[in-house]
What we know:
Elements: E1 2-6, H1 11-22, E2 42-47, H2 52-61, E3 66-69, H3 75-85, E4 89-92, H4 99-104, H5 106-127, E5 132-138, H6 164-183, E6 186-192, E7 194-196, H7 205-217, E8 224-227, E9 233-234, E10 236-238, H8 239-252, E11 258-261, E12 267-268, H9 269-278, E13 286-289, H10 307-313, H11 321-338
Helix pairs in contact: 1-8, 3-5, 5-6, 7-9, 7-11
Amino acid sequence: xxxxxxxxxxxxxxxxxxxxxxxxxxxxxxxxxxxxxxxxxxxxxxxxxxxxxxxxxxxxxxxxxxxxxxxxxxxxxxxxxxxxxxxxxxxxxxxxxxxxxxxxxxxxxxxxxxxxxxxxxxxxxxxxxxxxxxxxxxxxxxxxxxxxxxxxxxxxxxxxxxxxxxxxxxxxxxxxxxxxxxxxxxxxxxxxxxxxxxxxxxxxxxxxxxxxxxxxxxxxxxxxxxxxxxxxxxxxxxxxxxxxxxxxxxxxxxxxxxxxxxxxxxxxxxxxxxxxxxxxxxxxxxxxxxxxxxxxxxxxxxxxxxxxxxxxxxxxxxxxxxxxxxxxxxxxxxxxxxx
Length: 339
């Protein structure tokens, strides 16, 4: 089997590689149990940029991975990679995934997320039409539950994206379903809710909180935390449960369908902050709202129903939210000491 992972240098890419190689255990060799790979299987990872640190970390997970820098907007390069490698599975994770950045750079976001995805679909249609493609989309696509309704979002809920990032992902979502209907391309769509876990960028709330706490503990900054809107409710799922879901969707899911990848639990962002602060050795940390961290449009409540994913694949989350947050904080603590 040949597996291609786009966005390999990103937060999810490394965790996915760990999962398919050795069941979430970092190793340079293919494990005899736990992983997905067999002796003659090949893995290629592509990303816009793969710096030396990312390359070293990825090859520490799997020494035989083929890493290539490819801009997915460049049709000719994408076609060349797919034509030569002819993957059996593609995990399409590459994206401009920051909502705040998408407001500042909407054109770049659309180009990267929509055109890049289309280049993947078209190259597969031409060169390896039996390849399975997991397309990582987002819960940001869904409309907010209005009025007095407050319910878990199901896959049949209305799509009404409210920011450029969500618009780009909704477009890719629709394209994926259309390529399945028209071309019978084996596309599987994840509508993923909030990821958390070690290695996440500080552009995202839980990781941002953890980084600030680690810096306060390391006396790199005063004991004041800057936050955005912490009154919103979100559905947080450990990234290691996310990549497990991605794998089982390709293995057991139904082509052309969308699956919510989520915990199914509604959590207030302020509660996430409180848990992280409770782990800190520094007491009496002051909380201040930073207006620059507040989105132009911010939905009050987004949480999902994962019953379809469970029913079709047998998947279920394994990581407790407190374990996820502690691992995230410890990851930032290590980096705060190094820097």
